[in-house]
Every structure is written in C-alpha cells, then in structure tokens.
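Field log, afternoon session.

UNIT: design team B
ACTIVITY: writing a sequence onto a fixed backbone
BACKBONE:
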C-alpha cells in the first residue's frame, strides 16, 4: 500500500471507530437495542459499573433499565485512538453522562457521571467494533431531581427526546 493509501485507510478507520462510539451513545440513550448491539462484537466483554462480563449480559442489564423509562444522555469527547495493528486499536474516550431514573427501590434519582471508556477495538472484515470495554469513573455527582412533569419543565421546547422508535431521530434520518 502506498503512503497515501495507508494514510487514507487510517483516516477511514479512525472515522469508523468514532462512528461506533456515537452509535453506542444513541443505543444506550434511545433504548435502541439494534444500535447498541452494533457497537460491540457478539463475543465482546464489558466492565461497566456493577456489571462485568459478556456483552450479552450488559445488554440484558440495559434492557431492564430501559423498561423503567429512564432519561439518559451520553456525550463522548477526547477520543484518542492508538492502532496496535491493521485490525486492532486501543481507544480512550471521555464521557459525560446525565442519568435519571428509578432505582430497584422505586426512588427516582439523578446523577452526573464523568469518566472514560477504555476500549479494545477490533476490525473484522471492514467493520470496527468494541471487543472489550472497561468503564473508568472519574466523577460522580448526585443531583436533585427536577420537580414537575417534563411537559411543565420543557414547556414550548418541543419535541422532547424519547426512546426508540418514538424519538424524532427515527423519523427524520435513516436508521443506521
């Protein structure tokens, strides 16, 4: 491969990895199982707060949380990608997560979390996905739960974001 071809391939690989991270955020925030699954290889592992094990268990855990109707927003930044081979990369991504929902005890809580996804990505065929993830927490802040309904709080700021398939993104853009 020429130097230019190798540089172009690296740029394409970097963009594919970033796109995968963004798909994860959409999946976890919009309760979109297909988007969430598309960010991990089926044999991936995830160490994510109280959960540690195969990604299938993490997805099952997420589905149980989604059933409670939470509100989640994840933002990723400072994405540092180090290629270890043509089909491997270590990736550190900073995240900020705002989460509100009922716990197992039924009490609604709100928290802001800041940390990093420390990922091992693999390229299989032409696709990059997470093969192993460790979530590192650098900040956790309990916050007061806002009073009133979402309709009262958001007022004229419509539409309000929601879960798959009702969120407006699924009606305005093709599904990944």
């Amino acid at each position: 491969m020429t130097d230019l071809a190798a540089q172009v391939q690296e740029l394409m690989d970097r963009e594919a990895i970033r796109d995968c991270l963004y798909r994860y955020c959409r999946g976890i925030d919009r309760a979109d199982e297909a988007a969430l699954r598309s960010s991990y290889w089926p044999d991936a592992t995830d160490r994510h707060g109280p959960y540690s094990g195969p990604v299938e268990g993490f997805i099952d855990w997420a589905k149980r949380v989604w059933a409670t109707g939470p509100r989640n927003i994840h933002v990723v930044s400072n994405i540092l990608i180090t290629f270890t081979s043509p089909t491997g990369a270590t990736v550190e991504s900073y995240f900020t997560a705002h989460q509100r929902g009922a716990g197992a005890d039924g009490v609604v809580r709100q928290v802001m979390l800041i940390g990093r996804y420390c990922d091992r990505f693999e390229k299989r065929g032409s696709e990059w996905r997470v093969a192993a993830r460790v979530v590192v927490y650098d900040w956790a802040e309990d916050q007061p739960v806002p009073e009133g309904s979402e309709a009262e709080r958001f007022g004229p700021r419509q539409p309000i974001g929601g879960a798959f398939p009702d969120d407006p993104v699924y009606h305005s853009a093709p599904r990944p």
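LOG NOTE: The chain has five helices and six strands.
NEXT ACTIVITY: expression trials, pending approval
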